[in-house]
Amino acid sequence: MNDFVFKIRIYYEDTDSAGVVYHANYVKFLERARTEWLRALGVDQKTLLDEAGIQFVVRQFSLRLRQPARYDDELSVVCRIAQLHPFRMRFAQQIWCGILLVDAEVEVVCVNKVTFKPVTIPEWVQQLLKD
């Protein structure tokens, strides 16, 4: 499983009164990277929701802030699958700007959109994630 890198520029709106990225925004950046990686693989999450009736939801999240990002920095958000199971996947993610800024692990579960009960990740999606 190869790494996916998503670039993002920091704007004033991303920062707090200290001039660094507000901590909750890192969660958004990580989510965008996972979404864009799936999109790049050919997995359209809106289609999965509308046609297959399934969606991915975050079950568990761990984040370690090492260094702050600042206004106008260009960040590289790295995304990789650490574990893939029939119902869930665990992502290992990092945010870099020359140095490592953030480490994160995110466990995502595939669920039925109505019942929110776990369901098997479609085989074709699992195969794309393994390649």
TL;DR of this structure?
This protein is α+β, with helices and mostly antiparallel strands. It has helices at residues 23-41, 45-52, 123-130; strands spanning 4-9, 54-65, 74-84, 88-96, 100-112. InterPro entries: 4-hydroxybenzoyl-CoA_TE, HB-CoA_thioesterase_AS, HotDog_dom_sf, Tol-Pal_acyl-CoA_thioesterase, YbgC/YbaW.
Describe the structure.
27% of the residues lie in helices and 39% in strands. The chain is of the alpha+beta class and 131 residues long. A five-stranded antiparallel β-sheet has the order 1-3-4-5-2.
CATH topology: Thiol Ester Dehydrase, Chain A
Q: Could you give a short account of the major beta sheet?
A: 5 strands, antiparallel
In which range does the helix fraction lie?
Answer: 25-40%
How many domains comprise the coordinates?
A: 1
N- to C-terminal distance: 6 Å
Tally the helices.
Answer: 3
Strand order of the largest sheet: 1-3-4-5-2
Per the principal axes of the C-alpha atoms, what is the gross shape?
Answer: elongated
Under CATH, the homologous superfamily reads: Hotdog Thioesterase
Which regions contain 5 or more consecutive residues with pLDDT less than 50?
A: none
Radius of gyration (Å)? 16 Å
> Roughly what fraction of the amino acids lie in strands?
35-45%
CATH architecture descriptor? Roll
Question: Which class do the helix and strand fractions yield?
Answer: alpha+beta
Topology, number of strands: 5
Element-level helix/strand string: EHHEEEEH
CATH class division:
Alpha Beta
What's the rounded overall pLDDT mean? 96
GO molecular function: fatty acyl-CoA hydrolase activity
Pfam families: 4HBT_2 (PF13279)
Family: Belongs to the 4-hydroxybenzoyl-CoA thioesterase family.
InterPro entries: 4-hydroxybenzoyl-CoA_TE, HB-CoA_thioesterase_AS, HotDog_dom_sf, Tol-Pal_acyl-CoA_thioesterase, YbgC/YbaW
